[in-house]
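Bumping with the actual sequence this time:
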Amino acid sequence: MLRFNQSFKATLAACTLAVGAVGLAPQSASAYQIFFGEDLNNNGNVALSSTPNSAAAESQFLNVLSGVGTEDFEGFATGVGAPLGLSFPGAGNATPSGGSGAVATVASGTTNGVGRYGTSGDNFLEVSAGGAGNFVVDFSSSVAAFGFYGIDIGDFGGQLQIQLNDTANTLITVNNTIGSGGSTDGSVLFFGIVAEDGDEEFTQASFLTSTGSGDVFAFDDMTVGSQAQVISEPATLATLGLGLAGITVFRRTRKS
């Protein structure tokens, strides 16, 4: 089910979290604005009751957008497999596919027993990235903003990576905590990017892992926006006396 979001003012309170927990990290004068927040868990059977760091990152992300929609997958029946056809106001269509993706359902406040659950409602898209997984989101037209929640990422090592088909073939490594043997089961993160210019707009986002091995996780509350829906640049955390999140961005020349 698509939810509609309007822009709102970020408060200072939303920005005064612990250094590294939430980040807005412009990489250069012409680079993506990156929004990241993570709430750790270490229990595959118990869902987090609140996710303040992730929610604050999402709020900062939405604060620079206007009139965008967020897909929470509540309108899909359990077991419906990808590809899924999604529509976002002002930004066109998005099609998640691959990665053995399928809509899963667990009651709010619970997990599927291995750390995966939704961040709003009961539904989420269960997918696999890296290894044999090939989870991809394709967009019908160039987009400038893309954000999502990821649950149960990196619990057996590795970090999530996102490959964009922008003009520089940008590869972004998400700064999720690297777990071992399920040590970070059920953790929640929000990750969002906003393009600074037309060269950074993209029509595809591919999900990989830094280790190359597969990682199954819950994907929920996806937001997509066009350049016309980007309304402002937020103050950096540095201007508020905070540090920037450690997000790695590599720009590589695309092969013809």
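The tokens above came from a reply further down the thread. The radius of gyration is 17 Å.
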